[in-house]
Amino acid sequence: MLKNAFVDFKVLLKQIVNRKVNMQRKKVEWMKIHWMRFRKDNPYKMMYKYTVGDDEFKEVNFQKQRKGRQQQKPIQNLPMLYPSGRQISQAKFKDIQDLLKYVPPVHHEFYNSIRHEQHKSSESEVAEDVNDHESDAMSDVNA
Questions:
Q1: DSSP string, the chain
Q2: pTM score > 0.85 for this model?
Q3: How confident is the model at residue 134 (pLDDT cuts 50, 70, 90)?
């Protein structure tokens, strides 16, 4: 996926509220929803169905209710979540490098160019080193 497909919704979260009931004042059973529909012309409403076979959609309005006239603020230009992209951990990159022998050579350049953290010693590597020294010490004792 492209990095501009990941957007930061923090701005939007300030404009909405998590509703527990739908427009008909019936409880929304979130875990039973099978179909959700969002429309650009009605950005603060979600239409949903509990089964695909249901005839009509039920609606939930997430817009904060304010006194006075309601203003429909358009949702546009949400900031990118990771403008410069994300790096993978050094351990994950090492795993990818270990698996390159199973990948056709034509794709190696892509996997070698993945951005990753540079050599940081993680706590797990330090723990492995400590365990290695302890096992050596134990073998000396048993000798």
A1: --GGG-B--HHHHTTB---SB-TTS-B--GGG--EEEEETTEEEEEEEESSTT-SS-EEEE-BPP-SSS--------PPBS-TT--PBPHHHHHHHHHHGGGS-GGGHHHHHT--B--S---HHHHHHHHHHHHHHHHHHHH-
A2: no
A3: very low
